[in-house]
Write a structure and sequence with these properties.
Blueprint lengths: L1 H42 L2 H13 L5 H13 L3 H14 L4 H13 L10 H5 L8 H24 L3 H29 L3 E4 L3 E5 L8 E6 L3 E8 L2 E5 L5 E5 L3 E3 L4
Length: about 260
């Protein structure tokens, strides 16, 4: 019996140990690259810094600090569109970072088309959603959920007046946070915002280079992707303008 238990233990723990070791090695490698990229940035070698940050990103790792540093590097390289793109991605991870907020607002002033999609009414109601990440809101909802069911159980077994008020208060909080999280989840999954990357991008009446030129956008403009066809994207602006532009002239802020 002991031998069987030992075999089962080795079978299930050895692969985990190997996986963990590999994960730690990857983590050490990424940390090494991150410090290397930061050193390049301090030396003023911004191209090498950006390439090293991109190596980290291509390894499958992403974080607010990484995107923030990439935004700073692109700003130094005068790549306005990429700087805004990476700053916006950083906001998905660190929405309350004051330095990030300042840098993003500053770079937007440099863009020729200072376009940002307006906040809808429901998002305005749940205004705190803009200052909290999807993961943080999920953890908050999980905590409130636990407290709510604990209060319900307490109310069922302890018929005191104070347990009734605690239950009602937690019920209201549970509903508010629950709806807030549901909306945050929907907005996150349906986020089709994209940033124009080249200095100038033509917006045409159809998905073909021979179509009529409607207007032009410049690096840093934030648009919404409505449709796609071959190598073209149908985009729209807050003022109602719509048109087709080449897919390689923009990149979505939220990555799947």
């Amino acid at each position: 019996m002991k031998k069987i238990f030992l075999i089962i233990l080795i079978t299930f723990t050895f692969p985990f140990a190997v996986f963990t070791q590999g994960k730690n090695n990857r983590s050490d490698r990424r940390e090494e690259l991150f410090h290397k990229a930061n050193a390049f940035y301090k030396e003023g070698n911004y191209e090498k810094a950006l390439n090293t940050y991109l190596d980290i990103l291509e390894s499958g790792y992403a974080s607010g600090d990484l995107y923030y540093n990439m935004g700073n590097t692109c700003f130094r390289l005068k790549m306005t569109g990429h700087a805004i793109l990476y700053y916006e991605r950083a906001r998905l991870y660190i929405p309350r970072d004051a330095d990030l907020d300042y840098n993003l607002r500053y770079v937007r002033k440099l863009a020729k088309d200072d376009i940002e999609l307006p906040v809808d009414i429901i998002s305005g109601i749940f205004f705190w959603n803009m200052h909290i990440t999807h993961k943080e809101l999920f953890l908050l909802f999980a905590a409130v959920n636990l407290l709510f069911w604990t209060a319900l159980a307490l109310r069922l077994y302890l018929k005191k007046e104070w347990t009734y008020y605690i239950f009602i208060i937690l019920l209201v909080i549970f509903i508010i946070i629950g709806v807030s999280f549901a909306w945050k989840h929907y907005v996150t999954l349906s986020d089709e915002r994209a940033v124009i990357l080249p200095e100038k991008a033509d917006v045409l009446s159809g998905p073909d280079a021979a179509e009529t030129l409607l207007f032009q956008l410049h690096a840093g403009a934030i648009v919404c992707i409505n449709d796609a066809e071959d190598a073209w994207k149908l985009i729209s602006l807050p003022d109602g303008k719509r048109g087709w532009t080449k897919a390689d002239s923009l990149e979505k802020i939220r990555q799947k």
